[in-house]
């Protein structure tokens, strides 16, 4: 379905991003991985994906808080693959604290990585997409892009902003055959959420298992974590020709969490 296409997935050395990157590779797309981690382990991961799926898999260590590094990553992908057909803005960090105690540096970092990085990557690839009159922009926000929770001022602000960015870009680019959509996952058992569980346990002074039961999934109709494979399948649909009429949408995949 996506054979021969090329995709950049930010924050893709683990968790949701890696699951999405693997799904694109399985569909025959070349993939640019991005994220932090041990260089040897990432190289092993990249090589394994190439062997498993028969596609090109490259890696950029671009820091998503640095606009010039983001532009360099986009240029590198174009050099390696010829063009960039799809981007998945997934990179994200989190910090939990009451608003009056929220560190300024954490606010700045979360806004830079969770929101501004998406703007900079979109800006870098859109000229090529417009010239080809085709492209797919997929932004991974969160259920927290649709509603709020306490102690997450920067994260909630950034994820709400991601949805607004997607809608604006979608309207601007629709006539060029480019779509822009936002996926809003509920809680997924990733390293980021594992850290949130630990942070929430500290803030609420309760055991981690109680955080899962009474905080994270308390208001969720389906009392299970969202699976990475489910999110990856949605991303593949949005990137496909069958997703051509879906744009400027914010799609919740959260087990009903946002309806609490």
Q: How would you describe what is shown here?
A:
- The chain is globular and about 50 Å long.
- Helix 3 packs parallel to helix 4 (104-132), helix 4 (104-132) runs parallel beside helix 5 and helix 6 (191-204) crosses helix 7 (208-216).
- The mean pLDDT is 95.
- The protein is built from eight helices and seven strands; from the N terminus they run E-H-E-H-E-H-E-H-E-H-E-H-H-H-E.
- Strands 3-2-1-4-5-6-7 form a seven-stranded parallel beta sheet, with helices on both faces.
- It has one domain (6-186, 227-247): Rossmann fold.
- It is of the alpha/beta class and 260 residues long.
- 49% of the residues lie in helices and 13% in strands.
- Helix 4 (104-132) links the parallel strand 4 (86-89) and strand 5 (135-140).
Mean pLDDT across all amino acids = 95
Low-confidence stretches: none
Q: State the strand order across the main sheet.
A: 3-2-1-4-5-6-7
What's the CATH class, please? Answer: Alpha Beta
Describe the global form: globular
Gap between N and C termini, in Å?
Answer: 36 Å
- Helix share bin: 40-55%
Total strand count, please?
7
**Radius of gyration from the CA trace?**
18 Å
**Main beta sheet:** 7 strands, parallel
Domain module count:
1
Query: Which architecture name does CATH use?
Result: 3-Layer(aba) Sandwich
CATH fold field value:
Rossmann fold
The number of helices is 8
Q: Order of helices and strands, N to C?
A: EHEHEHEHEHEHHHE
Estimated share of beta-strand residues: 5-15%
Output the structural class: alpha/beta
């Amino acid at each position: 379905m996506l054979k021969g296409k090329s995709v950049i997935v930010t924050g893709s050395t683990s968790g949701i991003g890696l699951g999405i990157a693997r799904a694109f590779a399985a569909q025959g797309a070349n993939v640019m991985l991005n994220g932090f981690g041990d260089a040897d382990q990432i190289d092993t991961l990249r090589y394994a994906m190439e062997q498993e799926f028969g596609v090109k898999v490259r890696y950029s260590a671009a820091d998503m808080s640095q606009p010039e590094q983001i532009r360099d990553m986009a240029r590198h992908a174009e050099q390696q693959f010829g063009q960039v057909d799809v981007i998945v803005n997934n990179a994200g960090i989190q910090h939990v604290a009451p608003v009056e105690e929220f560190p300024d540096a954490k606010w700045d970092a979360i806004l830079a990585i969770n929101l501004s990085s998406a703007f900079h990557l979109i800006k870098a690839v859109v000229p090529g997409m417009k010239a080809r009159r085709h492209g797919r922009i997929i932004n991974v926000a969160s259920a927290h892009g649709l509603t709020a929770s306490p102690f997450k001022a920067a994260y909630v602000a950034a994820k709400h902003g991601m949805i607004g960015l997607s809608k604006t870009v979608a309207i601007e680019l629709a006539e060029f055959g480019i779509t822009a959509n936002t996926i809003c996952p509920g809680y997924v058992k990733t390293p980021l959420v594992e850290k949130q569980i630990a942070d929430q346990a500290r803030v609420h002074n309760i055991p981690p298992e109680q955080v899962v039961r009474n905080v994270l999934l308390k208001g969720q109709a389906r009392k299970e974590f969202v699976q990475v494979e489910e999110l990856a399948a949605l991303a593949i649909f949005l990137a496909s020709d069958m997703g051509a009429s879906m744009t400027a949408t914010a799609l919740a995949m959260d087990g009903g969490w946002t309806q609490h």
